[in-house]
Amino acid sequence: MTKDDDPEAYIEAFERTAIQTGLDRGQWGHQLGALVIDKAQAMYRALSREEAQDYEAVKAVILYRLEIAPESYRQAFQARKPRESRRPCGLLQALRDSLQKWLPAGKLNREGVLDQILLEQFLLDLEEDTQSDKKYQRGMS
């Protein structure tokens, strides 16, 4: 991985390659750790040997260190898109990608998704001073 690579695209390509080549899943964490650089590599090296064997843990700490989290996907989903990105097909795909990363299908059931959307709308509808208090509390939990 280079500094110019999109970390998510890189990890997705890594996963596809690992599957296609039949790499034992128990080796994925070590292989990914050997390929990342800078901050991501520092996070990988800070893991214990046991944690480094858990691919999902390796992936999670790398994405966390690179500040790629559900909150950033929520912001991307709700942000006003640049004019050049607002062509119908491209806009729909960008929204779909951000939504799937913000609310991953395997991690939330229908009720969880509805609760998340309700919470977001609730926070948007609160008055500004109350809104900042609730966001602070949400960050604490």
UniProtKB/TrEMBL annotation:
- Spans traversing the lipid bilayer: none
| Residue ranges of domain SCAN box in the record | 74-132
Mind telling me which Pfam families this protein's record contains? SCAN
InterPro entries in the cross-refs = SCAN_dom, SCAN_sf
In its UniProt entry, what is this protein called? SCAN box domain-containing protein
Which organism was this protein described from? Alligator mississippiensis
